[in-house]
TrEMBL record:
Interacts with RECQL4. It comes from Strix occidentalis caurina (northern spotted owl). This is E3 ubiquitin-protein ligase. Its EC number is 2.3.2.27. Belongs to the E3 ubiquitin-protein ligase UBR1-like family. It catalyses: S-ubiquitinyl-[E2 ubiquitin-conjugating enzyme]-L-cysteine + [acceptor protein]-L-lysine = [E2 ubiquitin-conjugating enzyme]-L-cysteine + N(6)-ubiquitinyl-[acceptor protein]-L-lysine. The lineage of its organism: Eukaryota, Metazoa, Chordata, Craniata, Vertebrata. A zinc finger (UBR-type) spans 94-165. Residues 1005-1025 have a biased composition (Basic and acidic residues). GO terms for biological process: protein ubiquitination; ubiquitin-dependent protein catabolic process via the N-end rule pathway. It is found in: Cytoplasm, Cytosol. Ubiquitin ligase protein which is a component of the N-end rule pathway. Recognizes and binds to proteins bearing specific N-terminal residues that are destabilizing according to the N-end rule, leading to their ubiquitination and subsequent degradation. It is an enzyme of class 2 (transferase). GO terms for molecular function: ubiquitin protein ligase activity; zinc ion binding. Residues 840-867, 997-1025 are annotated as: Disordered.
């Protein structure tokens, strides 16, 4: 029952109404809506009359007595307290649904959460199985929601013991308690009026008037000057403005300011219209003086203010009611959605659309209402999500121009819907949400487009971009769980979304081009952070798109076609350039004139990199054999695909050679992030893959000529004109080192699923092995150096025990992981993710270790895994003429002691390439009969390089290299290679013998029909099938290659002529 005594004095007319209204409301014939509004019209202005200095307790008592108590009596048909007590006993929701306050601790289980956005409140966590799992704690920014009970959020243990059905005592017998029909009927009658009133008053825009139904008494000239919160003005600005404008004391101004920050708005002056209007102008004037922008101030009639206040009170009353019963929630949701689907927005959409215009306090009530109703009922959550997506563009645009924090925006609710896998699926299929989000991005980003329709973020606003990021985040949420079941419609909609996303990437492909600064240093470092930050935001989204595409063969091919088209559209701008022709060792390259050191270049190539990502997935799934059905060999144009990523790698080389030092720090930073763990997967790594694609599809000599040309090293590998310019020589040497390194990566880096047959685990293990080859490391140090996936996981825990042992901390410091001995053989000195410092540290550590073990110091590359069929042609760049020429030229310079033209690092790389060539031939010989192995590295390396009198071959040069005093440190490696030459030679000889032997043995046992033979036959059949599959893919590859040759027919005819001659004929560029 109601306790009226504590409040003290009480208006007798209110008491009268208390007795009279429930009686009247219970009358079946009466018009509830009208009576309800009459009641509000009568009481609300009285209750909330003392706005400036309210007695909150008294206000609340009056509200209870005059309005809420009678309302509840009518609704429940009995004493509200007794009724609600009964309802409470009869069972609660299986969803916790606790809404987090800012700063509250949330828990996420790393083992069981479907994605990192799934969290538990402290209570639920403590009562769940997850407290014994690996978990993460976070401090909530506010506005989140406990996911306890959501079966889609957890792989295991979705319910804590508190929320398990039948957990709370008496709830066991009757957890599905339903309201009786009479109460349902009353609710259907009461809720619409309540909701309509809340909506009407929250979106009410008239300052002076109320809706007609609420206007009863004579209007008095009683107004408030109301000040609103924003994120632009500081506390001090507001206090200052208030003191100056109202002439009030500091204490009072502070009080107002605190209240405004908390509630979102506050009356700072009461009085007649004119005086409030005057105060308004004063506040605006003073605030504009201190901060360029006036504060938001309104003059509101006292009655308007009162009703708006009460509307919020009614909102929290609804919240309370809905916490008791699912029926209440469902009825509320139904009414809020009425007319959804028609032209006119339904109640809840009206409120959403008004969100950005509401003050802070009102927004909080609105969001709580959504949480306590729609988000507690899965079916209605879906319907709400549909409405949300329907108005998504408008809502995001409003948010982007809003000045309140994201937690206070209705757009922040997206995570609650988009990360639910079934909901995301539904929104993609039915609402096309991927396309909607990408189109929203395209619509809010145009202000950053330059004349070429590329993004350019010079002079961007950080706040605004942060708001744009939240749209990008929504894309991540929608994609975070990959569908297991694909329908035609899902496929269609996803592809549509992907194509729309490609349009964003098109605006990024080649954005923020830079040109090498010559002479003077640049004056101002250009803004680079925004573009890199967007790249970081997009990294996992790009990966997820690729993963989604790879779910389905047909989809992957279609996506590939679209992406290929997009890359081609962006690659046409160089068409007008003149062609140049470059000859070396009898091979000719004709290409468009372009120099990284003189022409514009961009580090941003997301389209090319997405294509590379799709290409490895084609290879991984074997779908590549059907590629020609989707992209014809004529259209493919591999040399154009390679062009831009290659330029980017050359840029990195030239930066290392200090050719770009006048371009300042901005470029250094970009190059850093390009290779950093935060970006590299979708930047640097993909560029290497694109080069591997080029190497697998182009003629190997052509490929290398293109590399030489883009590295601007064509002269360096022809007859050197002696130059005295030390700087130029040094620069050239660095470029050669950088190029050799890239060649090592193209041939040797195969730890990508699809490039070879490795798993993600293998990849992570290899990363960890190479980190620990530098030195033993703490868990945190390893984690920091590994890329995170879309769930913010590195995969470290799954594999660390396979490659390392944990060494407990000594007296000080923390424990570290040490590499297991058996993993040391995996060490690759030229691991592509090593920075220069890491590279030399690792080399040093490993050499020292070998010395301690009394072993030689040779650190040859570990045998790499076999390339997948689609990439198997890459190895041919090792034994082609141009490669031999490069290797020989460098070795010769070292042997002839032309000290300034070579470096030890260069020799190390040459030795590494030689090792890779020999390892490849050895592996091939061990697998197939000698006559089938066409990879003839040994043969090429032992052949004379020129017809000149002092002609030498690589093998001879190596022998001489041992005597070069500066290369003492490389002696062991040279010896290792010489041994390898010997091994390969023996294998060549031996394998021809063993094949003979093998045939004779099989001949002898031919008649034996043992099970062993059947197994053998089965194995053979499988091997044959695999061979046929490989052959098929190779046929596709050579079709692509033939086309390449076709387009360069003229050149090839020249080459064919040249082939008969010695392969080192030097020719000048035409
Ligand atoms: Zn909870
Ligand atoms: Zn719970
Ligand atoms: Zn768990």
């Amino acid at each position: 029952s109601l306790n009226l005594n504590s409040g003290g004095c009480f208006d007798h007319s209110l008491l009268a109404s208390l007795e009279e209204i429930p009686f009247r409301w219970c009358d079946e014939r009466f018009n509830f809506q009208a009576t309800f509004l009459q009641c509000l019209a009568k009481h609300v202005p009285n209750i909330y009359s003392a706005e400036m200095d309210p007695l909150l307790e008294k206000q609340e008592e009056m509200v209870q007595a005059a309005i809420l108590y009678p309302l509840e009596c009518y609704l429940f048909g009995e004493d509200p307290d007794i009724f609600l007590e009964k309802l409470q006993q009869s069972g609660t929701s299986q969803l916790c649904g606790k809404v987090f306050k800012g700063g509250e601790t949330t828990y996420s289980c790393r083992d069981c959460a479907v994605d990192p956005t799934c969290v538990l409140c402290m209570d639920c966590f403590q009562n769940s199985i997850h407290k014994n799992h690996r978990y993460k704690m976070h401090s909530s920014t506010g506005g989140g929601f406990c996911d306890c009970g959501d079966t889609e959020a957890w792989k295991a243990g979705p319910l804590c013991t508190k929320h398990e059905p039948g957990a709370s005592g008496s709830a066991k017998e009757n957890s599905e308690c339903q309201l009786n029909e009479e109460i349902m009927e009353h609710s259907r009658r009461v809720f619409p009026s309540v909701i309509k009133y809340i909506v009407d008053m929250l979106i009410w825009e008239e300052e002076k008037e109320l809706p007609l139904e609420l206007t009863v008494r004579e209007k008095v000239d009683s107004y408030y000057c109301v000040l609103f919160n924003d994120e632009h003005h500081s506390y001090d600005h507001v206090i200052y403005s208030l003191q100056r404008a109202l002439g009030c004391e500091l204490g009072e101004a502070q009080l107002h300011t605190t209240a405004i920050d908390k509630e979102g708005r506050r009356a700072v002056k009461a009085g007649h219209y004119a005086s409030c209007q005057e105060a308004k102008e004063e506040i605006k004037r003073h605030s504009e003086n201190v901060s360029q922008r006036p504060l938001h101030v309104e003059v509101l009639h006292a009655d308007v203010m009162a009703h708006q206040k009460f509307a919020l009170r009614l909102g929290s009353w609804m919240n309370k009611l809905m916490s008791y019963s699912s029926d209440f929630r469902q009825i509320f949701c139904q009414i809020c959605l009425e007319e959804a689907g028609s032209e006119k927005p339904c109640f809840i959409s009206k409120l959403m659309l008004w969100d950005a215009k509401l003050h802070k306090g009102a927004r909080k009530v609105l969001h709580e209402l959504i949480f306590s109703s729609f988000f507690m009922e899965m079916e209605y959550k879906k319907l709400f999500a549909v409405e949300f997506v329907k108005y998504y563009k408008v809502l995001q645009k409003e948010y982007i121009s809003d000045d309140h924090d994201r937690v206070l925006s209705v757009t922040a609710l997206s995570v609650q819907m988009f990360t639910v896998p079934t909901l995301a699926r539904h929104l993609i299929e039915e609402q096309n949400v991927i396309t909607i989000i990408t189109e929203t991005l395209l619509e809010v980003l145009p202000e950053y487009l330059d004349k070429n329709d590329k993004f350019n973020f010079q002079g961007y606003s950080q706040d605004k971009l942060n708001r744009v990021y939240s749209v990008i985040y929504d894309l991540r949420y929608v994609l975070v769980s990959k569908p297991t079941l694909w329908t035609d419609r899902l496929r269609e909609r996803f592809l549509e979304g992907f194509v729309s996303f490609l349009r964003i990437l098109t605006c990024m492909q080649g954005m923020e081009e830079i040109k090498r600064q010559i002479g003077q240093h640049i004056e101002v470092d250009p803004d680079w952070e925004a573009a890199i930050a967007i790249q970081m935001q997009l990294k996992n989204i790009l990966l997820m798109f690729q993963e989604w595409c790879a779910c389905d063969e047909e989809l992957l091919l279609k996506a590939y076609r679209e992406c290929h088209k997009a890359v081609m559209r962006c690659s046409t701008n160089g068409r007008s350039r003149e062609k140049t022709v470059f000859h070396l060792c009898g091979h000719i390259l004709e290409s468009r004139h372009y120099r990284v050191s003189a022409d514009p270049v961009s580090i941003h190539l997301p389209l090319s990199r997405t294509l590379a990502g799709l290409h490895v997935r084609l290879s991984k799934t074997g779908t590549i054999s059907r590629l020609h059905e989707f992209v014809s060999p004529e259209e493919f144009q591999v040399e154009l695909l390679v062009e831009y990523p290659l330029r980017c790698l050359v840029l990195v080389a030239q930066v290392a050679a200090e050719m770009w030092r006048r371009n300042g720090l901005s470029l250094i930073s970009q190059v850093f992030y390009y290779q950093d763990v935060k970006c590299r997967e979708e930047m640097y790594d993909k560029d290497i893959i694109m080069l591997q694609i080029g190497a697998s599809l182009m003629d190997p000599n052509q490929f290398l000529l293109l590399i030489l040309q883009r590295y601007e090293l064509t002269d360096a590998f022809r007859k050197m004109k002696p130059t005295k310019d030390q700087d130029l020589i040094k620069q050239c040497n660095v470029l050669i080192e950088e190029m050799l390194q890239i060649l090592i990566y193209v041939v040797g880096e195969r730890y990508v699923p699809g490039v070879s047959n490795v798993t993600k685990e293998d990849v992570t293990m290899r990363e960890i092995i190479h980190l620990l080859c530098i030195e033993p490391m703490a868990h945190s140090a390893i984690t920091k150096s590994l890329p995170e996936n879309e769930n913010n996981e590195t995969g470290l825990e799954n594999v660390i025990d396979k490659v390392a042992t944990f060494k407990k901390p000594g007296v000080s410091g923390h424990g570290v992981y040490e590499l297991k001995d058996e993993c040391l053989k995996e060490f690759n000195m030229f691991f592509y993710h090593y920075t220069k410092t890491q590279h030399s540290k690792a080399e040093h550590t490993q050499k020292k270790r070998r010395k301690q073990e009394n072993r030689d110091e040779a650190l040859p590359p570990p045998p790499p895994p076999d390339f997948s069929p689609a990439f198997s042609n890459v190895v041919r760049i090792l034994n082609c003429d141009v490669m031999m020429h490069i290797l020989r030229t460098i070795l010769q310079r070292a042997v002839e002691l032309e000290t300034h033209l070579w470096t030890e690092a260069m020799i190390q790389m040459v030795l590494h390439l030689l090792s890779l060539g020999l390892l490849e031939e050895k592996q091939q010989l061990q697998k197939s009969p000698e006559e089938e192995v066409t990879f003839d590295f040994y043969h090429k390396a032992t052949r004379m390089g020129s017809s000149a009198l002092n002609a030498v071959n690589v093998l001879m040069l190596l022998e001489k290299l041992k005597r070069v005093p500066q290369l003492e440190a490389q002696k062991d490696t040279v010896n290792w290679i010489l041994q390898m030459f010997d091994t390969v030679k023996r294998l060549r000889e031996k394998s021809s013998l063993t094949t003979v032997a093998a045939t004779s043995v099989s001949e002898a046992t031919k008649s034996d029909e043992s099970t062993q033979d059947k197994e053998k036959a089965e194995r053979k059949r499988k091997a044959e099938a695999a061979r046929l599959h490989r052959q098929k893919i190779m046929a596709q590859m050579s079709a692509l290659q033939r086309n390449f040759i076709e387009t360069h027919k003229l050149l090839y005819e020249n080459t064919l002529e040249a082939q008969g001659k010695e392969d080192a004929i030097m020719e000048e560029e035409r």
